[in-house]
Every structure is written in structure tokens, then in C-alpha cells.
């Protein structure tokens, strides 16, 4: 018995120890470098994470709080709401940003660029070069996200050893010029090494790299040309050292890069979207058709993917009015008159100053530029089986000129003594025995806040998916792709860069293509070289003068790219943001019924919340995150005005 | 049983309170710095608005890393005061206000107890001959601009009216009635002094109005003008009280 027990113990011991012979086993559930970098599919997996974090200001970009926010309210806090592109009561300009500092992602790219050559023999040259090019594209995109915020940042191209001495780890900032040149060089590498295969729309190729180059170099050129007008040089160390700002003499180099990049894109298989006869619907469809020949690069969403990975969004639920067209909290972003009137508009005021009388509210759409109608929904338009109905109130009689309303204040005589009737949702009034509903079904309600309450006369149409049923329009149900780059934008980039280089006629060749597709009345306006310092939005008084036709090109961007998260970056790089957003009190176009005539009028009013936007000159550069400076004093000096 | 619970709860509470009893090992900051910002032309305090700009200070007795600046906001009367600073040596610089950039940082000011430090600055602009008058419930304000130094003067930006219902008036925090009826009446210039005024040191009279005011109210009003330097802060007129008759 005893012997047997001993034998058992010995056997057990042998078993236990024999199992421990190999402790250093490769874990089977984790992929290492050979699996990821050794096959094309592995590299794709490695890149997917990086693509997810590219600094793309899309549906899930929370203007003052970061990318892929994964928050149901993100679309309310969009960049358009922050910058005054929308009437929206939620947020305003926050110069401090959110500390964007993606050196973790850049390290992942650098890790690839450093180690991938070890696997060169596993790939045909073409594939190896293509993947190497893609890595450079990704790195350039992250640097672009920083350069437009901070100017010069440290250029790190190596995988730093975390145990290295602090002299090595505490990198200094490079100049802004060097940073943009670095972005250019990375993208040039990507263009030279990637292929022209455009099958995967969510993945970069040669033309995607060129499109990013076009956008980034235009940004750099404008920074170089216009930073001088800010007057930072006198007092700001960061500008004196070239960390925040460049010299006007450096501008043309970048404008030329932008033009060259645009020409590369034009060699690709792209054309302006022109599939539908009706130009307004055509313009709206361009953003919903994933097979659009205009699209160069998409960020795709998928509503059936697991929640929590930021692959669904709420755009429809937060841009369409509830309950008729949304089953969630509904719309809160509206188009102010300041942007509406950039497009061709029918006259709503007669030459003698009296308001034009319309037979129906929807008549305001007649004579409006088709592109404008593809960008916004107006009274009479249909969505998800319902018709938009937007009216602010009723005038018993209106026997004066439009300016008699004194921008809509209650104290104006024509608005007093019950002549102007405003009301809440569903309220009615009786005039001479006839009962009228005071407002439209979708606003403007005096008893409600900003939600589902058309301030002005238009809701956003761009990117709205009309094919969803209202019951389905809820949080996290939208999955239309975000069009990151499209040919229309590249044309506008090229046009602006050409004009800055003095090639005016060539610039307007591109503008004409855009305006032709838009259905604008004048496709190719004559070039006007008169100098002006007055902008269009808010009649801003710029601190420098420019040719009127250049201002026209800038306005063309505002028209074509409205609600695509470009405008804020545009007014930043033009260095006009602090003048455009200088007491920018949006004007709203309000519709009234004139009871004694049975007609409708449209009036230019101030918004009821006295909502306004302001930006100071500190908005042109965000501060280098203070926490990073705390860790690394070599990042000083801090950016201007902080 | 009940008593036991009560006592043990009391005991735990007593313990939790006494555990917090030990005082902080660092004294609360108690050094005070105060002073005036003087207009070099008038010798008086610079006409300012509440918290419109600040004096930057850097604590140099902290050597573990590069100190980041702290800001001492300048008050409407052109003075500043902070009595909750750590004792030590500081560098000080009036920064970002409506005056020619001050390049001489005042180095190594020792803070211990109460310290007074004055600064003299040279404003970009002076606003002269400030006048107000009422026509019914419409207010008009006028002034002339004077630029004693015109070489290198950044472009004029605007002349803006400020109206307030309290004695705090200006572009600073909560110091004006910010409505379109007023701000739309600002005169936007955006020209160089030479283009706008010419060779003269003093401009013609600018009049701003009509600004609608309410009968029976008391307003505190002033004008501000700024130039296109990095900060675009305003030089002001003095504040005038306007009583609108009932």
C-alpha cells in the first residue's frame, strides 16, 4: 500500500514537472510582428487600427472634444455648430482644443516603417513599395492633424526607446516650415510608391495621397502668406522662432505643391458626380452614393457592427426634425441667412424696399441655385413621407418696408400692438373669424428651445439619408459613409492655389466646372482684380486686402463645401476667423403670413437668442498640450498668446 | 444592540474625522503683490476694463522645470492685486494689453509679505474729447483718436461703443450689454493711421449712434478703439454716467 502510494506520487510529480519543461511558449492568441508584417493581410490588419484613428473631421467629430467621440450628442456639437456655420445653441469657439497629440499612432507607423524592410523578401517589390507608401500616407495624415493645430511640432521618425536618456526622449519642436515640408515629403513618397488601384474606397492609394497633399499644401501656403497679417512677430517668441507661422516668401512653394498634387488626382479615374438629371437631387445624392465617381476616399460606417467601436453615427436622427422625420431628439442645426445668400437666391425684397409677396411659402425655392437646394431642405420639400413646413408667425397687415421690422425686435412699431403674432407649437389665432395656425409644423416656435425648431428657414439636407424610415431614424442607426476627399474639393484647392499664384484664368476653369455641376446661373464670372478687404460672411473687415475674384473663390468653397467641416479650417488658414467671428450674429430668414393679403413674405431678422460667435487671434494656433510641456520643457516656447 | 450600532458608527465617524486632522505640510500661499499700471502719457492709471488683460509672472525660485506663467488680471481702475501667491522670486511682465509691447521683463521681484510693483506702459491710442448726448432715447457718443507714436503703429481696427448697467464698463468680463443694436454701430476702420487720418497726430471726431437706450435707466458708457496687434485690446475713454430721463 505504502509502495503504491509512493509510486503514485512519483508519477504525479513526473507529470507535473514534465509539463513545465517549456515555459517560454509563444502565446497562440496574439499575433506578433512576423504574422502582421510578413503577409499582406497582416499588414492590412495592422493598418486598420491606424485608419480608424486618422484625424478626419466626420460625423463623430466632437468639435471641442476630439475624434470618434462615440457620443450620441456628437452631431449637435459638430464643428459647424462651433464655428457659426450652423445656427445652433450648443457650443462656440474654444481656442484651447482638446490636446490632440497622436504620437502613439505615429509610433505605430514608425514601428512599421522601421521593421517592415526585414520582411522585404516575402513580398513582390510592387507590393512592398505600395505598403511602405501607405505607411507614409498614414504618418503624413497624423502630422497634418497636428500641423494645422499647432504649427511646428517635433518630427519623430524613429521608434524611441522608452528607457533612453531624457536628452534623447525630450525632443524639441521643429519649425512650422519643416513640419509642412515633412508632410509634403511623406506624401510625395506615398504618391511615388503607391498604386493607382482604386478598388478599396476606404483605403489609400496614390490618388488619395495626392488629395491629402492638395488639401495640406493649400493650408500651408495660406499660413505662410497670411500669418504676417496677425502681427504676432512683435511679441511672440514662437512666431519669431518660426514655430508658429511662416514667411510670405515661402507661400508659393506650397501653392505649387498643391497644384501639382491636384494634377495627380486628375490623372485618376474620377469625375464630378453627374448621374441625375435634377441638379439639386444630384448634388444631394453625391454624398450617399458609395459608387460615386467623384469620391476619392471614404470613411465607411456600418450599423450592424458591434456598438462601442464608433462605426455608427446619429446624423439623421440629429439633423432631421422630430417627430415627423426623426424618432430621436431631432434637429438642432439650421442654415443661417448669411450662408444661404451666398447662393443664387430669388429676390425677397423689392427694389422699393417692400417685401416680395409670395403665393406660398415654398415659392422661395424658385430661382434658388440647385446646389443650395441639394444642401438644405426648405418649406415644401419632402423627406420620409412628410413635407417641411416652416413659418415664424403672422402679420395682420404689412404696409411698410422690410427694414421697418428693425431686425425683428418686438419694440418696432410694425411688430407692436398685436400686428405681429408669434406663437408656440400648434398655437392658433383668430383673425376676422378665420382660424390660423401661427407657425409651421417644424417651427419657428416661441415656446421652445433650439430643438426641432427651424430658426431661419432651412434644415440641413447634405448627407441626410432619405431612404431611412422615420421609425428607424434613431441614435446609432445611421451608417452613410463620410466622404473624406472628393474631386470637387480638389478642384477648389487647385483653383485657389492657382489664383494665389497669379494664374487667374486657369483657376476659373476649375471654378466653372464646379458651378456648372452646381447649376449656378453664372457659370464663369468675369475676373475682377479690384482689391477689397471686406469679406462676405458678416461683412468681415479683413486685416489685409485681396482681389475680389479670390474672395469669390473663397465663397465658392463655402457654397460647395457647406456642412463638410471645411469652413472652420478655411477661415483659420486665411487668418480671417477673428474678423469673421467678430460679434458674428447670424441673420435668419423668417417667413410670415400676411393675413389681410393672404400672401407670404420673407424677412431678414436677428436670431431670438442673441446668439453670436467670437474668436480671438489665439484661435489660429492651439496651445501645445500643457501636460506635454510639463513632461518635456523642450517643447517651449508655447504657441502665441497662451 | 441599537446602542452598539450607534456607538460603532460614532466611533467610525470620529476615526474618519481625526484621520484628516493632520495639517498640510505646506503653508497656504500668503505673499501679496499689488500695484498700478501707469499710462506714460497721462501719468495716471491706464484706462482699462475688468480682466481684459493680465500681468504675466513666472516663479523663478522654482527650478525643477521651466515655470509656466501665471496671470494677474488687471482691474478696471488699472491696478492689480493678488494676495495668495507663494513667497519667492518672480519675473513680471505686462502682456497682451493695449500698449506698445513691453520688452523689459522685471526680473527677480521678491515676494514675501506685501510687495508693490508699478509698471509704466505706452498706449497705442488715446481717446480724447469724449462726449455723450441724448436725443430722446437715442444715445450718441463721440471722441477723437490720438496716436502719439505712429511709426510702426499696427492698422486701426475699430471704434466700439460699450454700454453697461453697472459701473463696470468695457470689453472685459460681463462689462457691457452685448446686443446687435450696439455692436453693429461700431465703426470698423481696418486701415493704417496714414490712410485713415493722414499726417496729423489727432483724428477728426468720430460719432457713434444712435444707440437705443431705455427711459428711466442709468447707463455707464465709454468708447474703445483698438489696433491690429496680436491681442487687439481696446484703449478706452473714461466711463461716463448717463441718466436717461423718464
Topology:
The complex is a heterodimer of chains A (642) and B (246).
Chain A: H1 2-19, H2 33-37, H3 40-52, H4 79-83, H5 103-115, H6 125-150, H7 166-169, H8 176-193, H9 206-226, H10 237-240, H11 251-266, H12 279-285, E1 295-299, H13 315-319, H14 337-340, H15 370-375, E2 376-377, E3 382-383, E4 386-387, E5 393-395, E6 420-422, E7 428-431, E8 434-437, E9 459-460, E10 482-486, H16 487-500, H17 504-518, E11 531-534, E12 541-547, H18 548-560, H19 567-573, H20 577-580, E13 587-594, E14 599-606, H21 626-631
Chain B: H1 2-18, E1 31-39, E2 54-59, E3 70-73, E4 79-85, E5 88-95, E6 106-111, E7 114-116, E8 119-121, E9 126-135, E10 138-146, E11 156-164, H2 180-183, E12 187-191, H3 193-196, E13 202-212, E14 218-227, E15 234-236, E16 240-243
Parallel strand pairs in B: 1-7, 1-8
Antiparallel strand pairs in B: 1-4, 2-3, 2-5, 5-6, 9-10, 10-13, 11-12, 11-14, 14-15, 14-16
Which chain pair shows the most residues in contact? Answer: A-B, 29 and 25 residues
Report the major sheet of chain B.
5 strands, antiparallel
Task: Quickly count the helices of chain A.
Answer: 21
Give the overall form of chain B: flat
How many alpha or pi helices of chain B? 3
Given as residue ranges, the uncertain stretches of chain A (5+ residues, pLDDT < 50) are none
Strand residues, percent of chain B: 35-45%
| The CATH top-level class label of the largest domain in chain B | Mainly Beta
Helix content percent band of chain A: 25-40%
Number of domains of chain B: 2
| CA radius of gyration of chain B | 25 Å
- What is the total tally of β strands of chain B? 16
Average pLDDT of chain A works out at: 94
- List SSEs of chain B in N-to-C order: HEEEEEEEEEEEHEHEEEE
Q: Tell me the total number of β-strands of chain A.
A: 14
**Main sheet attributes: strand count, strand direction, barrel closure of chain A:** 4 strands, mixed
The rounded distance between the terminal residues' Cα atoms of chain A is: 85 Å
The CATH topology of the largest domain in chain B: Immunoglobulin-like
- As laid out across the biggest beta sheet of chain A, the strand order is 6-5-13-14
Amino acid at each position: 500500500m505504502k509502495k503504491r502510494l509512493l509510486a503514485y506520487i512519483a508519477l504525479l510529480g513526473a507529470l507535473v514537472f514534465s509539463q513545465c519543461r517549456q515555459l517560454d511558449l509563444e502565446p497562440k492568441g496574439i499575433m506578433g510582428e512576423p504574422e502582421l508584417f510578413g503577409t499582406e493581410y497582416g499588414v492590412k490588419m495592422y493598418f486598420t487600427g491606424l485608419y480608424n484613428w486618422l484625424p478626419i473631421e466626420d460625423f463623430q467629430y466632437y468639435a471641442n472634444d476630439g475624434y470618434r467621440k462615440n457620443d450620441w450628442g456628437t452631431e449637435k456639437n459638430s464643428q459647424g455648430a462651433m464655428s457659426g456655420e450652423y445656427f445652433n445653441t450648443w457650443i462656440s469657439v474654444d481656442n484651447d482644443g482638446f490636446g490632440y497629440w497622436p504620437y502613439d499612432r505615429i509610433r505605430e507607423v514608425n514601428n512599421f516603417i522601421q521593421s517592415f524592410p526585414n520582411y522585404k523578401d516575402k513580398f513582390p517589390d510592387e507590393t512592398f513599395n505600395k505598403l511602405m507608401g501607405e505607411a507614409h500616407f498614414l504618418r503624413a495624415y497624423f502630422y497634418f492633424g497636428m500641423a494645422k493645430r499647432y504649427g511646428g511640432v517635433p518630427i519623430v521618425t524613429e521608434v524611441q526607446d522608452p528607457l533612453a536618456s531624457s536628452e534623447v526622449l525630450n525632443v524639441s519642436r521643429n519649425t512650422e516650415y519643416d513640419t509642412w515640408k515633412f508632410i509634403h515629403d511623406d506624401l510625395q513618397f506615398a504618391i511615388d510608391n503607391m498604386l493607382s488601384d482604386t478598388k478599396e474606397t476606404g483605403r489609400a492609394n496614390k490618388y488619395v495621397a495626392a488629395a491629402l497633399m492638395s488639401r495640406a499644401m493649400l493650408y500651408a501656403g495660406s499660413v505662410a502668406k497670411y500669418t504676417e497679417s496677425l502681427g504676432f512677430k512683435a511679441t511672440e517668441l514662437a512666431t519669431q522662432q518660426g514655430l508658429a507661422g511662416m514667411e510670405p516668401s515661402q507661400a508659393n512653394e506650397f501653392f505649387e505643391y498643391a497644384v501639382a498634387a491636384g494634377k495627380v488626382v486628375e490623372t485618376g479615374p474620377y469625375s464630378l458626380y453627374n448621374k441625375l438629371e435634377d441638379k439639386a437631387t444630384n448634388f444631394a445624392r453625391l454624398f450617399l452614393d458609395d459608387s460615386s465617381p467623384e469620391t476619392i476616399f471614404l470613411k465607411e460606417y456600418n450599423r450592424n457592427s458591434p456598438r462601442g467601436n464608433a462605426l455608427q453615427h446619429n446624423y439623421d436622427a440629429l439633423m432631421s426634425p422630430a417627430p415627423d422625420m426623426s424618432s430621436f431628439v431631432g434637429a438642432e442645426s439650421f442654415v443661417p441667412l448669411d450662408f444661404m445668400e451666398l447662393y443664387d437666391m430669388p429676390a425677397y425684397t423689392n427694389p422699393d424696399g417692400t417685401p416680395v409677396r409670395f403665393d406660398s411659402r415654398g415659392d422661395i425655392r424658385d430661382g434658388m441655385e440647385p446646389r443650395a437646394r441639394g444642401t438644405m431642405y426648405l418649406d415644401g420639400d419632402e423627406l420620409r413621407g412628410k413635407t417641411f413646413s416652416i413659418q415664424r408667425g403672422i402679420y395682420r397687415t404689412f404696409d411698410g418696408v422690410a427694414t421697418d421690422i428693425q431686425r425683428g425686435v418686438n419694440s418696432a412699431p410694425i411688430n407692436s400692438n398685436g400686428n405681429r403674432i408669434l406663437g408656440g407649437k400648434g398655437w392658433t389665432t383668430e383673425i376676422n373669424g378665420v382660424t390660423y395656425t401661427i407657425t409651421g409644423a417644424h417651427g419657428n416656435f416661441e415656446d421652445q428651445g433650439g430643438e426641432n425648431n427651424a430658426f431661419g428657414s432651412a434644415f440641413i439636407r447634405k448627407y441626410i439619408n432619405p431612404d431611412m424610415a422615420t421609425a428607424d431614424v434613431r441614435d446609432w442607426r445611421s451608417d452613410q459613409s463620410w466622404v473624406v476627399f472628393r474631386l470637387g474639393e480638389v478642384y477648389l484647392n487647385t483653383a485657389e492655389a492657382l489664383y494665389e499664384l497669379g494664374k487667374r484664368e486657369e483657376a476659373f476653369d476649375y471654378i466653372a466646372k464646379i458651378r456648372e455641376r452646381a447649376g449656378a446661373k453664372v457659370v464663369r464670372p468675369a475676373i475682377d482684380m479690384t482689391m477689397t478687404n471686406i469679406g462676405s460672411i458678416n461683412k468681415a473687415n479683413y486685416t489685409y486686402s485681396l482681389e475680389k475674384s479670390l474672395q469669390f473663390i473663397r465663397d465658392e468653397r463655402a457654397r460647395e463645401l457647406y456642412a463638410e467641416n471645411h469652413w472652420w479650417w478655411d477661415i483659420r488658414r486665411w487668418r480671417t476667423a477673428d474678423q469673421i467671428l467678430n460679434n458674428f450674429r447670424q441673420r435668419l430668414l423668417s417667413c410670415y403670413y400676411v393675413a389681410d393679403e393672404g400672401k407670404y413674405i420673407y424677412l431678414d431678422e436677428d436670431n431670438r437668442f442673441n446668439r453670436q460667435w467670437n474668436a480671438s487671434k489665439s484661435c489660429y494656433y492651439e496651445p501645445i498640450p500643457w501636460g506635454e510641456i510639463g513632461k518635456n520643457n523642450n517643447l517651449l516656447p508655447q504657441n502665441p498668446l497662451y | 444592540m441599537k446602542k452598539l450600532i450607534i456607538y460603532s458608527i460614532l466611533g467610525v465617524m470620529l476615526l474618519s474625522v481625526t484621520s484628516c486632522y493632520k495639517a498640510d505640510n505646506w503653508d497656504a500661499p500668503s505673499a501679496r503683490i499689488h500695484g498700478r499700471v501707469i499710462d506714460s502719457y497721462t501719468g495716471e492709471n491706464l484706462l482699462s476694463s475688468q480682466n481684459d488683460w493680465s500681468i504675466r509672472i513666472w516663479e523663478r525660485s522654482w527650478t525643477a522645470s521651466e515655470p509656466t506663467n501665471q496671470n494677474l488680471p488687471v482691474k478696471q481702475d488699472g491696478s492689480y492685486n493678488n494676495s495668495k501667491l507663494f513667497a519667492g522670486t518672480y519675473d513680471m511682465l505686462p502682456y497682451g494689453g493695449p500698449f506698445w509691447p513691453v520688452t523689459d521683463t522685471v526680473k527677480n521681484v521678491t515676494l514675501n509679505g506685501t510687495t508693490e510693483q508699478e509698471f509704466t506702459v505706452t498706449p497705442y491710442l488715446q481717446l480724447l474729447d469724449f462726449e455723450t448726448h441724448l436725443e430722446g432715447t437715442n444715445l450718441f457718443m463721440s471722441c477723437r483718436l490720438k496716436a502719439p507714436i505712429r511709426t510702426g503703429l499696427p492698422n486701426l481696427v475699430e471704434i466700439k461703443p460699450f454700454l453697461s448697467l453697472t459701473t463696470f464698463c468695457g470689453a472685459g468680463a460681463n462689462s457691457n450689454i452685448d446686443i446687435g443694436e450696439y455692436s453693429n454701430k461700431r465703426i470698423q476702420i481696418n486701415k493704417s493711421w496714414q490712410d485713415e487720418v493722414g499726417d496729423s497726430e489727432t483724428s477728426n471726431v468720430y460719432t457713434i449712434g444712435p444707440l437705443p437706450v431705455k427711459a428711466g435707466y442709468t447707463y455707464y458708457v465709454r468708447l474703445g478703439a483698438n489696433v491690429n496687434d496680436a491681442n487687439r485690446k481696446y484703449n478706452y475713454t473714461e466711463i461716463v454716467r448717463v441718466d436717461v430721463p423718464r
